Every structure is written in structure tokens, then in C-alpha cells.
């Protein structure tokens, strides 16, 4: 008679497998729904960054150059990258949102009260400093943001390589100073 009184405690293996299967399906459905939104948020964040830094850099009457940047940086010029794109990224931060230590160590800002055009804290999420070099800007995909002055149209542009990380491809994001907007390279054609 005692053998008839089995207390059924816990779940059977089949019941557990069914629950795990349902949870797995829910995770896949959620991932499919969320991933496109995450990709859009990265693009949106990069567009916002370009919209923020672009007018400050491209709006100058005398567009910045690497040569001028090295002169203005003074004793900090040894911390400027040799790579032109990286140096132009450092240049944008130097002129638009220098940290207090960069401000105080440069020739350009010598004997001036600290008053950057943009607050470095606003760009902190997109600022990287490595190897003792001056800080530079990156996009939401961790690619260097760079500046280039186009002598043909006499305008400056700020670039992001976009989600693929490769420059000069259709998904590049570009701040166009002609109309203060951010477009893909494909839209610029």
C-alpha cells in the first residue's frame, strides 16, 4: 500500500525541456525585434555627434589645418598622431572641446580663461585617448571620426566610416557644411 502513495514532487524531464524550448523561442523573437533598434540607435548617436561637432569645425572662416594645429598645440604637438585621419580627429577636439589640461598646455589658449566651444563632458562617450597621444573622436562603432577640407568646393566635411568601418563606402556618414546636415555617402551623390 505504501508504494501507491508516491508523492509527486518536481517536474519531469519532458516538462523541463518544454519550458526551456519556450524560453529559447522567446529569446530569439526578442533578439530579432531588438537588434534593428540597436543598430538604429548607433547610427542616431553618430549622426548627433557629427551634427554637434560639424558646425563648430566647418564653420570657421579660416579652416583648421594639421600644420596650424601643430603650431597651436605648441609643446603638445609631439602628442599628435602621424596618421592624417587620426590627427584630424585630434584637431577637432583640440579646437572644439579641449580638456582643461590640453587648454593649459597649448600655445593657442595660453593666458586665456578656460572656455571651450563645446564642453568635453558632452563628447566624453565618443572620446578616446591612447598611448600618450592627444584625445580623438570615435563614432558609435568605435571608428575614428575625421575632418577633411575639400579644396574643390572650399568646404570642410566631417566623416564617420559608418557601421561597416570602411571609409569611402555608401554607408559612411558625412556632415555636409553646405546645409548643416548629416547624410550617407550614398545620399550625397
Can you summarize this structure?
With 189 residues, the protein is α+β, with helices and mostly antiparallel strands. The chain is 41% helix and 12% strand.
What keywords describe this structure?
41% helix, elongated, two-stranded antiparallel sheet, alpha+beta, 6 strands, 189 residues, 12% strand, four-stranded antiparallel β-sheet, 5 helices
Q: Could you explain how this protein is built, in words?
A:
This protein is of the alpha+beta class and 189 residues long. It has one domain. Helices cover 41% and strands 12% of the residues. The protein contains five helices and six strands. The chain has helices at residues 13-58, 66-73, 84-96, 100-105, 185-188; strands spanning 127-128, 136-137, 146-150, 155-160, 173-176, 181-184. It is elongated.
Low-pLDDT windows of residues: none
Q: Can you tell me the number of structural domains? A: 1
Class by helix and strand content?
Answer: alpha+beta
Work out the number of β strands.
6
Number of helices: 5
Largest β sheet strand count, sense and barrel closure: 4 strands, antiparallel
Strand order of the largest sheet: 3-4-5-6
Radius of gyration: 26 Å
Gross morphology is elongated
Amino acid at each position: 500500500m505504501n508504494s501507491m502513495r508516491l508523492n509527486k514532487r518536481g517536474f519531469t524531464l519532458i516538462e523541463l525541456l518544454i519550458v526551456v524550448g519556450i524560453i529559447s523561442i522567446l529569446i530569439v523573437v526578442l533578439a530579432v525585434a531588438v537588434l534593428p533598434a540597436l543598430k538604429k540607435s548607433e547610427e542616431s548617436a553618430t549622426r548627433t555627434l557629427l551634427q554637434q561637432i560639424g558646425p563648430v569645425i566647418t564653420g570657421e572662416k579660416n579652416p583648421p589645418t594639421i600644420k596650424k594645429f601643430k603650431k597651436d598645440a605648441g609643446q603638445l604637438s609631439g602628442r599628435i598622431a602621424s596618421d592624417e585621419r587620426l590627427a584630424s580627429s585630434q584637431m577637432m577636439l583640440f579646437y572644439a572641446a579641449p580638456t582643461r589640461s590640453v587648454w593649459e598646455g597649448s600655445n593657442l589658449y595660453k593666458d586665456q580663461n578656460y572656455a571651450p566651444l563645446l564642453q568635453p563632458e558632452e563628447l566624453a562617450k565618443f572620446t578616446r585617448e591612447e598611448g600618450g597621444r592627444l584625445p580623438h573622436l570615435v563614432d558609435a562603432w568605435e571608428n575614428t571620426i575625421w575632418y577633411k577640407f575639400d579644396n574643390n568646393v572650399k568646404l570642410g566635411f566631417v566623416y564617420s566610416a559608418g557601421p561597416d568601418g570602411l571609409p569611402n563606402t555608401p554607408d559612411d556618414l558625412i556632415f555636409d557644411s553646405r546645409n548643416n546636415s548629416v547624410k550617407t555617402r550614398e545620399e550625397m551623390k
